[in-house]
From TrEMBL:
Residues noted as binding [2Fe-2S] cluster in the record, renumbered to the chain: C94, C126, C186, R258
Reaction catalyzed: (4R,5S)-dethiobiotin + (sulfur carrier)-SH + 2 reduced [2Fe-2S]-[ferredoxin] + 2 S-adenosyl-L-methionine = (sulfur carrier)-H + biotin + 2 5'-deoxyadenosine + 2 L-methionine + 2 oxidized [2Fe-2S]-[ferredoxin]
Protein name per the record: Biotin synthase
HAMAP family xrefs: BioB
Superkingdom: Bacteria
Function, in words: Catalyzes the conversion of dethiobiotin (DTB) to biotin by the insertion of a sulfur atom into dethiobiotin via a radical-based mechanism.
Family classification: Belongs to the radical SAM superfamily. Biotin synthase family.
Record organism: Nitritalea halalkaliphila LW7
Cofactor(s), by name: [4Fe-4S] cluster; [2Fe-2S] cluster
GO biological process terms, semicolon-separated: biotin biosynthetic process
């Protein structure tokens, strides 16, 4: 395993553009089929009302956005949405809940049943539910969970400029808790929040130096939403996105580099460049939780134009099957950190 430094990552990222994407494409072809891309569908199983103050998120209860809170979906409704996604070509479903952390109780039991039901459809099941304990991670594993998403968001240094209600170390602790199971890890971040190049590279180096590094790394471009503290941020250019994808590919050769939020502002040609530079996974469907995403018909047309085939489920890692015996809940009440500092722009939006 290569140990990467910030200087080495920055040197890669700043290579002449065509040299960078050539190197990334070479690494990509050595580890992946360049003509296959995984299609994932993100289902918001519990929308809005989140107590966190993430400056990019329209689901934060403290900000005045158009997102309306919705209760936890039923298992039957989630299964129906998963079947529609599967029919459209998705091999993975990610179930996202606007929670700070997992809490033992009826709602978590309902999520575990969702995982069991969707995994029976021969689909990879991912969850993003916030912070969780080792025992909660074990119970998700026993339910048949394939992957758990928990993004580091940015560098440790810039993180405190975006979020004040949870600590960066708690993010890392959750990732370590997932690694105590056989569940694969999905963790990446967002660019375009006002961070520096050093912040972007620090985030990638943090992920790349994990042993092992995440099996999936989402690269998101901020989608500014009215009412959030970051509503006025300038859009990320396609060249910035391609450079991030290419650098992530070189630093983490075997991971699935996931082209996530921000695709609605990318041309078909721009997305093709991302695929060439090493992106081999996308989220499909007209929404990513609450932000816009290209329609599945647009993605299908793009795949046909490029000769790309959807990746089948479990091509990269063996399937997870639900255990015959499931561990009981412990009724845990973990005390996750609350750093306590305030972010002026977040507080300003809260007061409006």
């Amino acid at each position: 395993m290569t140990t990467w430094t910030l200087a080495a990552a920055k040197a890669l990222h700043e290579l002449p553009f065509l040299e960078l994407i050539h190197q990334a494409a070479t690494v990509h072809r050595a580890h992946h089929d360049p003509n296959k891309v995984q299609i994932s569908t993100l289902i918001s199983i519990k929308t809005g009302g989140c107590p966190e103050d993430c400056g990019y998120c329209p689901q934060a209860a403290r900000y005045h956005t158009e997102v309306e809170g919705e209760p936890l979906l039923s298992v039957a409704r989630v299964k129906a949405q998963a079947l529609r996604a599967q029919a459209a070509g998705s091999s993975r479903v990610c179930l996202g809940a606007a929670w700070r952390n997992v809490k033992d109780g009826p709602e978590f039991e309902q999520v575990l049943e969702m995982v069991r039901e969707v995994s029976r459809l021969n689909m990879e099941v991912c969850c993003t539910l916030g912070m969780l304990t080792p025992h909660q991670a074990k119970r998700l594993e026993e339910a048949g969970l394939y992957a758990y998403n928990h993004n580091v968001d940015s560098s440790e240094e810039y993180y405190k400029e975006i979020i004040s209600t949870r600590a960066y170390e708690d993010r890392l602790e959750t990732l370590r808790n997932v690694r105590k199971t056989a569940v694969t890890l999905c963790s990446g971040g967002i660019i375009g929040m006002g961070e520096s190049l050093e912040d972007r590279m620090s985030m990638l180096v943090r992920l790349a130096n994990m042993d092992p590094y995440p099996e999936s790394v989402p690269i998101n471009a901020l989608v500014p939403v009215e009412g959030t503290p970051l509503e006025g941020q300038a859009p990320v250019s396609i060249f910035e996105m391609v450079r991030m994808v290419a650098t992530a590919r070189i630093l983490m050769p075997e991971t699935q580099v996931r082209l996530s939020a921000g695709r609605t502002s990318m041309s078909p040609e721009g997305q093709a460049l991302c695929f060439y530079a090493g992106a081999n996974s996308i989220f499909a469907g007209d929404k990513l939780l609450t932000t816009p995403n290209p329609d599945i018909a647009e993605d299908q047309a793009l795949f046909r134009a490029l000769g790309i085939q959807p990746q089948a489920p479990y091509e990269k890692h063996a399937p997870r099957k639900a255990a015959d015996i499931v561990s009981p809940a412990l009724g845990e009440k973990p005390k996750w950190s609350r750093p306590g500092h305030q972010i002026p722009r977040n507080e300003e939006k809260r007061r409006r």
